[in-house]
Amino acid sequence: MTRAEKQATIDQLKNTFENSEYFYLTDTSGLNVEDFGKLRRICFEKGITIQVAKNTFIRKALDSCGKLSNEIEPALHGTTALMISETGNLPAKVIKEFRGDKEKPALKAAYIDSAIFSGDNQLAALVALKSKNELIGDVIGLLQSPAKNVISALKSSGQTIAGLVKTLEERNN
Asked: Is pTM beyond 0.90 here?
């Protein structure tokens, strides 16, 4: 690989990191070609970009875009596959679903909207994260709940008052 090709790869990775709020560094060593192909297919179907890159290229690209940190640096050893997604928890769900009871792919580190999760023990926390759309739905549901309660109370009290007036009318007759 020539120096120009290496720099082009670093620039491409830098562009990817600059335009991505969510990326995962995973360890896919030990996966055979067939299993890695299955993982690639699942990622493609879910809209996740998966790419294997040299750790030095990843380190230089992250450093040049300001996303390299002390938490990510130790993860850059061994085989590293990048998983890039538009949803923060989707790669974690894919990793958990794909590996089942196996150990690989393992999570090395994840960059989620400037927060860094290091180590495979963080996978459960990442799976539990809610996406932006899920959070918006929760907020809308919470905002609608008090309004529904007020409307329901007004309707039921209106029926109670109408029933009370009707009973009083019948008594007077």
From this structure: no
